[in-house]
């Protein structure tokens, strides 16, 4: 994350955000929305009620996020933190429990998805980020237990 432009005219800042898939996207925070920037480099965040701008270029689609008056920024606790397996947990690999835990860890944080969102996605057959990339926005919106905002953020992040 890098803040490029602070308090210039109508903008508070433009933040360069690294998504969980490694892609980078600009996030414009507008003065009129009175958003407090209270996050640090490395924080994993879920942006609720954010505006997505998408346009076609010669090399595919470009994306940009903008604040709205209803924007909330929520930290995602524990996402991306993986601990090594304990000796007694290695036996779970045979039963598939550890593999399922790995799959769910891959989905948590994508587009701000929580553990409950990841479980809903997996119940609908979306086991990997590749599955999410191949899904349409309408497909994701039809997942029971996944709100439209999360579906939109997933598509913005993964394309």
TrEMBL record:
<dbReference type="GO" id="GO:0000166">
    <property type="term" value="F:nucleotide binding"/>
</dbReference>
<feature type="region of interest" description="Disordered">
    <location>
        <begin position="80"/>
        <end position="99"/>
    </location>
</feature>
<dbReference type="InterPro" id="IPR010995">
    <property type="entry name" value="DNA_repair_Rad51/TF_NusA_a-hlx"/>
</dbReference>
<dbReference type="Pfam" id="PF14520">
    <property type="entry name" value="HHH_5"/>
</dbReference>
<protein>
    <recommendedName>
        <fullName>Helix-hairpin-helix domain-containing protein</fullName>
    </recommendedName>
</protein>
């Amino acid at each position: 994350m890098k803040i490029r432009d602070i308090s210039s005219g109508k903008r508070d800042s433009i933040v360069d955000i690294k998504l969980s898939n490694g892609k980078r996207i600009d996030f414009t925070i507008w003065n009129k929305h009175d958003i407090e920037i209270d996050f640090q480099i490395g924080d994993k965040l879920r942006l609720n009620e954010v505006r997505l701008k998408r346009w076609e270029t010669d090399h595919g689609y470009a994306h940009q996020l903008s604040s709205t008056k209803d924007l909330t920024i929520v930290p995602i606790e524990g996402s991306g933190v993986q601990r090594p397996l304990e000796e007694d947990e290695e036996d779970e690999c045979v039963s598939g429990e550890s593999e399922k835990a790995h799959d769910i860890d891959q989905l948590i944080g994508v587009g701000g998805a929580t553990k409950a969102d990841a479980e809903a996605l997996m119940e609908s057959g979306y086991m990997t980020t590749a599955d999410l990339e191949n899904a349409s926005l309408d497909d994701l919106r039809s997942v029971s237990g996944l709100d439209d905002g999360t579906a939109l953020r997933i598509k913005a992040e993964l394309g």
